[in-house]
Amino acid sequence: MANMPESTPSGVFSVVDYAVFSAILLVSAVIGLYHACTGGHQRTTQEIFVGDRQMKFLPVGFSLLASWMSAVTLLGTPSECYSHGTMFWLISGSYIFVTLIAAHLYIPVFYRLGLTSVYEYLQLRFSHAAKLIGALAFIFHMIVYMSVVLYAPALAINAVTGFSIWKSILTVGLVCIFYTTLGGIKAVVWTDVFQTLVMFAGLLAVIIQGSIVFGGFQNIWQINQEGGRIVFNEFGFDPTIRHSLWSLVIGGTFTFLGNYGCNQLSVQRYLSCPSERDAKRVLYVNCPLLFIILSLTMMCGLVMYAMYGKCDPILAEYIGRADQLLPYYVVNELGFFSGLAGLFIGCIFSGSLSTVSSGMNSLAAVTLEDVLPKKRFSEKTAALVSKFLACTYGLLCVGLAYLAGYMGPVLEVALKLMGIIGGPLLGLFTLGLFFPCANNKGALVGVFTSFAISTWIAIGAFLYPTPRPGLLTTLDDCVLSNVTYTAFPDDNSTYMEGTSLSSLLSSTAEAPKATTHPVLASLYSVSYLWYSVISMLAVLIVGLITSLITGGNKDVDPSLLSPVVNCLCSCSFRRSGHKLQRLEDLDMMDVDTGSYWKRTPVNMDTHL
């Protein structure tokens, strides 16, 4: 419907836009200052990391959503819908399974132990080495993920305002460092609530404006249906299919279970609640919010296809990559309405601020609890060290974010990371929670094998990529005027005189070159959504076999097992003569069991 505009208002950011954008940043900073000056003034690690375990479940539920639904989602999901259709929408089915499994099989164990770092569980269940592996893998995962998340809004800001990507990354990072270091988890949670509302507002602005232009969202749906974008019928069992019902629901379940079931960023939020019931409610608040934000981002993708499906800015080389589609849309369709461009940039900023601030706080907690030598700091010193660690991780991610542009589409990169690193860790926790016979040797051999397999597949997929072309878009409606047209700001920007775009592209196109693939190329073609499943199964299979060969485990503490395992196996424990030793009976200085740390009493009266 819409032709390519004759000029691009890139760099045009009105006073109102700046005011809206600045207000969003200012509110986040003020929240950090408020929590630094109230309550316990962030003088203890318990207040900094878990809010003295007195946080309300509703804001924590919003915070959990914001922590994982970053700018990666806000930019990547609309471009996914634009390029590949609506099939990705079915990943919402995995949210239900993740919520039920995490709430009733994983959270009860971690909450009742009164942990600060979830990786302390690995020391209690297996060994100090297992804990260190889990903690270091989490640190690596979050640093890379946060770098991707920082890069995404920088891309958007560069498009709309003309700010350099580096300055944008620095701005996001410094704001995060400021309020996270000052306000701790309380500032993180309440800024997440505010930023979630900003994200909803920004996405709704895109959808509402598009609906007005096309005379209702039903017309947008019709255009997408005619263009082949409404796709919900991929039911094939082939694991190389990028998005099928099975990869989205089953693969998505295990991918997100690694995030919501045993990732420090999420578990730290559950542990900040005053009761186990409230910890579970956090997930039940998060689940419908996940579906809402997924639906809003997919609808934004439908709006963009209705606008640009017959004049594709990627084919026309006005933008360099699909992740720029939503910023490009805002530049050309919302940029003329004062304040909306500022709201959109605030929306994208909010997605990154929430994730990066949560990651900084969690990284500081894990490093202090699990990595630094166990020379006990005074409470005052520990609080200062935690703030220094949060600041250091923030600066490190700012530096690494500049490299994120070379990693590929932001959504797929983020989900691949979850599978490569989150999958083995999910397998390690699952081995400990659900298999009493698993021992330390099995856990270590299993997790190393899993890391090796997932990394091997990921590297193979990078070296021998499988072509996965998107759905058809055209240049049929693209008409350039005789004046010079300046393309969207990008390293690949070009200047064109009045010319037929179709003839220009066809004259410069080259035939694809044949690539020789190794025998195992089919394994490298497996959908990234199966990475977590493969990684977790590798830990379980190798870990159990190794455990059985090395004598299994005869001293199992039932408080370290999932409730369902205790329910099913309590009788077999008694019959087999296994020694059931409660954690409170252990020597608090026994480093081999990991029980030298202090566990904070928690409210068990209200757990389900």
Automatic annotation (TrEMBL):
- Compartment(s) where it occurs, according to its Swiss-Prot or TrEMBL record: Cell membrane
For membrane topology, the record states:
Multi-pass membrane protein
**Is Translocase among this UniProt entry's keywords?**
no
Q: Which NCBIfam families match?
A: sss
InterPro entries for the chain: Na/Glc_symporter_sf (IPR038377), Na/solute_symporter (IPR001734), Sodium:Solute_Symporter_SSF (IPR051163)
Q: Which UniProt keywords apply?
A: Cell membrane, Ion transport, Membrane, Sodium, Sodium transport, Transmembrane, Transmembrane helix, Transport
Please identify the protein, giving its name as recorded: Sodium-coupled monocarboxylate transporter 1-like
Which molecular-function annotations from GO does this UniProt entry contain?
Answer: symporter activity
Q: Which PANTHER family match?
A: SODIUM-COUPLED MONOCARBOXYLATE TRANSPORTER, SODIUM-DEPENDENT MULTIVITAMIN TRANSPORTER
One biological process term in Gene Ontology: sodium ion transport
The UniProt entry's sequence similarity note says:
Belongs to the sodium:solute symporter (SSF) (TC 2.A.21) family.
GO CC terms, sorted: plasma membrane
Give the primary localization class: membrane
Q: Where are the transmembrane segments?
A: 12-36, 57-75, 87-111, 132-152, 164-185, 197-221, 241-262, 283-308, 328-353, 384-407, 413-435, 442-464, 528-549
Which Pfam families is this protein grouped with? SSF
